[in-house]
Structure formats: structure tokens, C-alpha cells
């Protein structure tokens, strides 16, 4: 009921509705795009998928967020955010058309992935501008409700977009031409978000003029120094740092589980049938989405009952033990259930990490702390895919990978608990 109540409250604002609509349309388009790239990279009937190819695909999908993340704030604090929301979809649509044309022309895949990286880079600016614009369209007393509604709804629309992408792939096929059509549709839908953004006044979303703001070149140079300073500040707040570390550990182990699942479905479960493998992975994604949604409801109750410091290691330990037991028999039924468990645990840890950083870190360091958070969130996922490329056999049936996942989560839980446990006072003489 809290989510519904929050949604009703914030939707009363006309400007919020327009910004919210811009987000929902863009993230729906992003779901189609991500499905198109994933399907082409891992499940094309004419391609052989290897763990190395999985690592390369994950790098394309996630590295732009890690590399560009710390720097985008420099520009969205200087450029008109409303104009970013209008122009970025046009640039992204052009790049999507270029990527579709490259696929149809049969050029080397590296050129296609370069275009995809450009699309994701533009999307990073777009999403950052959306987040920075939110305080301009809701009053301060409703900002928390708006923050609760927008990420959840956006992620849900990304899942819906991926589902629509799956249905369209069934119609168009999984080859180069079918993927190209998905990219074109994604670009057209994303362009609709620009039309919604144009209904807002140019000055509505900021940034506000600040004569003391450093010049862009100086601000870019200060980013790296700021990240180092932010990391030092985080280390002095061990609960926030430990919870962020728990999130990073989950993302690494979840990345390994993702790579393992893709290769298992592609070869071990389906004997190389790409379409059957994609349908199987689709079920895992769906169950993970259900777990993600359930965690949004479960985590506030659990942290109130057990405290955040206890719920994080409980979620991590349960994720390792349960998912390991489900994956280890290498039966197809086990992976969707494991996806559900990891969806609950992962989103629970993420919500706790968000809360711990916002609660403990001083306001002046929040931006830098969340930049580090963003780099860890995506970088650890890609790092896990790289390790998977080194250890996974061609059919994905790896006891070593399952052992790393099953034991890694409880170890992360133990380390977290040791860090956040208050020191025992020395006995008085």
C-alpha cells in the first residue's frame, strides 16, 4: 500500500507526471534495446556463444556506466537538463539506426558493439539528468515518496520492455535482420520520450546559476581527486563502507551466476538450441524480477525487525546456501528458483546499501560516494564475467563456479558482520 500511496501523492504534480512519463518511456525502450543486444550477443542461432563472448557482451552493457558515471555530473550541472532530455533521445536514436544498419550490412561485430557503447554512453547522461531533475518537479516534503516510486517503476518498465523485445524477436527472428528491427523500434520509442520532455519549460529542470561553480575543465580534473577523497571519507564510516562492499560482493557473485546460467542454457540444457536457451533464460529473468519486486516490500519489514546490520548478512548467507544447493544438481528447474532467491537477496542488499550511505555519509560527500557506488555496482559485474571466461567449460557445467558462488556469499556475510560489529569495550582494571 505504501508504494501505491506514494504514487498517488506524487502524480498530483503536472511537471512530475511529465518527467515520470519521460522516464517510463525511455526505460521501456531500454528494455527492448538490452534484450536485442543480449539476444544477438548470446543467443543468435548462427553464433557460437562462449564465456569470453559473455564477458565481452557484459562489458559493452555495463562498462559505460562505470567509466562515465563519475564525470556526468560535471556536465548535467552546467547544461540545461531539459535540453539533455530532448537532445539525448535524438542522438541515441541516430546511433541505434546506425547500429541496425551495421548489422544488416554484415560489418565486423566490433563496429556494432562500438555503436552500442555509444548508445549506452548517451543513456548514462540521460538517466543522470532525470535523477538530477527530480527535485525541481516535486516539493521537498514529497521528494522521498518520489524517490521511492521512480526507480521501482522504471525498473519494472525495463522488464516489460525486455518482455516485449522477446515477443518481437519471436516474430522477427533472432538473426541480424530481426535484431536490427528491434534496435529501430527501440530508437523510435526512445524518441517519444523527447516529445514528452519538450512539453516542459526549458528552465524548469535547472541547473540553477552559480557564479562560484568551477569551470568545466577544472571540474573534470577535480573528479579523480574527489573520488579519492570520497573513498577516504567512506573508509571512516565503516557501516556505510561495509554495506557498499556487501553490495559489490553480491554483484560479483551474481555476475558469475549470470554467466554460468547463460552458458548452461545455451549448451548443457538445450544442446545448442539458441531459441530454447533464450526462452529458458527468459524464465530466469522473470523470476529474478519477481524476487526484486518482493524485496521492495520485504526489506523495510526485515530491517525494522532484525536491523539493517543483521538483515544484510542474513540475505547474503541465504543467497549463497540456497542458490548453491539449487544450481549444484545442474537441473534446469533449479535456475529459475535460484534467480528468484538471488533477486530477493540482491535487491535487499542494494536497498540497505542505499540507506546506509544516505544515513551515515555526510551530505557534502554523498555525490562522490554514490559515484564510487555506481562504479562498484557495474564494474564488479563485468569483473565476474571476466573470471567466468577463464574458468567456465564450453558447456558451463562448472563445480568450481558453483562453489565460488555458494561459499562466496556466506564469506561476504561473515566479513560484513565482523566489520559492522561494535568493538567490545576493554574491562576496567
TrEMBL record:
InterPro entries: MFS_trans_sf. It comes from the Bacteria. It is found in: Cell membrane. GO terms for cellular component: plasma membrane. Its main location: membrane. The keyword Nucleus does not apply. It is a multi-pass membrane protein. The chain crosses the membrane at residues 20-43, 49-72, 84-105, 111-132, 144-168, 174-197, 252-269, 281-299, 311-330, 375-392, 399-419. Keywords: Cell membrane, Membrane, Transmembrane, Transmembrane helix. Signal peptide: none annotated. This is MFS transporter. It comes from Nonomuraea rhodomycinica.
Amino acid at each position: 500500500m505504501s508504494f501505491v500511496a506514494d504514487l498517488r501523492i506524487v502524480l498530483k504534480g503536472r511537471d512530475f507526471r511529465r518527467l515520470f512519463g519521460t522516464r517510463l518511456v525511455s526505460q521501456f525502450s531500454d528494455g527492448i534495446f538490452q534484450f536485442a543486444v543480449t539476444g544477438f550477443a548470446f543467443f543468435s542461432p548462427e553464433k557460437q556463444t562462449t564465456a569470453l563472448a559473455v564477458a565481452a557482451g557484459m562489458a559493452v552493457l555495463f562498462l559505460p556506466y562505470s567509466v562515465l558515471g563519475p564525470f556526468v555530473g560535471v556536465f548535467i550541472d552546467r547544461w540545461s537538463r531539459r535540453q539533455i532530455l530532448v537532445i539525448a533521445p535524438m542522438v541515441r536514436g541516430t546511433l541505434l539506426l546506425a547500429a541496425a544498419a551495421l548489422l544488416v550490412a554484415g560489418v565486423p561485430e566490433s563496429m556494432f558493439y562500438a555503436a552500442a557503447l555509444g548508445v549506452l554512453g548517451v543513456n548514462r547522461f540521460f538517466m543522470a539528468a532525470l535523477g538530477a531533475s527530480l527535485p525541481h518537479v516535486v516539493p521537498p516534503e514529497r521528494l522521498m515518496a518520489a524517490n521511492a516510486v521512480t526507480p521501482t517503476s522504471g525498473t519494472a518498465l525495463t522488464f516489460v520492455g525486455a518482455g516485449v523485445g522477446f515477443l518481437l524477436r519471436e516474430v522477427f527472428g533472432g538473426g541480424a535482420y530481426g535484431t536490427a528491427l528491434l534496435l529501430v523500434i527501440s530508437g523510435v520509442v526512445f524518441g517519444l520520450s523527447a516529445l514528452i520532455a519538450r512539453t516542459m519549460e526549458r528552465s524548469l529542470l535547472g541547473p540553477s546559476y552559480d557564479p562560484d561553480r568551477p569551470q568545466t575543465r577544472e571540474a573534470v580534473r577535480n573528479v579523480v581527486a574527489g573520488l579519492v577523497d570520497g573513498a577516504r571519507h567512506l573508509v571512516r564510516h565503516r557501516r556505510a563502507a561495509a554495506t557498499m562492499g556487501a553490495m559489490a560482493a553480491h554483484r560479483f557473485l551474481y555476475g558469475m551466476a549470470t554467466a554460468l546460467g547463460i552458458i548452461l542454457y545455451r549448451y548443457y540444457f538445450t544442446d545448442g538450441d539458441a531459441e530454447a536457451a533464450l526462452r529458458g533464460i527468459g524464465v530466469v529473468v522473470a523470476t529474478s524480477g519477481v524476487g526484486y519486486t518482493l524485496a521492495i516490500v520485504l526489506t523495510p519489514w526485515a530491517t525494522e525487525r532484525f536491523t539493517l546490520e543483521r538483515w544484510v548478512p542474513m540475505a547474503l548467507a541465504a543467497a549463497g546456501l540456497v542458490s548453491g544447493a539449487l544450481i549444484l544438481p545442474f537441473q534446469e528447474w533449479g535456475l529459475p528458483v535460484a534467480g528468484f532467491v538471488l533477486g530477493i537477496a540482491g535487491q535487499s542488499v542494494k536497498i540497505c546499501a542505499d540507506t546506509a550511505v544516505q544515513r551515515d555519509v555526510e551530505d557534502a560527500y554523498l555525490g562522490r560516494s554514490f559515484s564510487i557506488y555506481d562504479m562498484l555496482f557495474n564494474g564488479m559485474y563485468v569483473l565476474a564475467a571476466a573470471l567466468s571466461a577463464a574458468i567456465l567449460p564450453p558447456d558451463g557445467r562448472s563445480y568450481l563456479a558453483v562453489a565460488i558462488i555458494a561459499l562466496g556469499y556466506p564469506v561476504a556475510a561473515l566479513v560484513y558482520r565482523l566489520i559492522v560489529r561494535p568493538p567490545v569495550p576493554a574491562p576496567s582494571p
